[in-house]
Design brief:
Strand content: under 5%
Helix content: over 70%
Largest sheet: none
Radius of gyration: 14 Å
Length: about 80
């Protein structure tokens, strides 16, 4: 149990929580807040995908996460600013 109570474990919980919250908000017809929630999850995704790149040579996951982060950032700006 103690091996899950660390920084990496917290990152994994945040990935699931904020991503699923974003999908739920979109399903509840609150797309702007769903985008915000998914954008909040992106630092956790970036951390996880960076670790997988360094530990298992999974650069594709990291590049995909960077692109999704840019798309979500554009979506939030488009929804709330423009």
């Amino acid at each position: 149990m103690k091996k899950y109570l660390n920084f990496n474990g917290l990152m994994q919980v945040c990935v699931v929580f904020f991503t699923m919250l974003g999908f739920l908000l979109i399903a509840l017809k609150l797309p702007g807040w769903g985008l915000v929630s998914n954008l909040i999850s992106e630092p956790f995704w970036l951390y996880s995908s960076y670790k997988s790149w360094k530990n298992a040579d999974q650069i594709g996951a990291f590049i995909t996460t960077l692109m999704i982060t840019a798309i979500l950032l554009f979506g939030v700006l488009n929804y709330f600013v423009f």
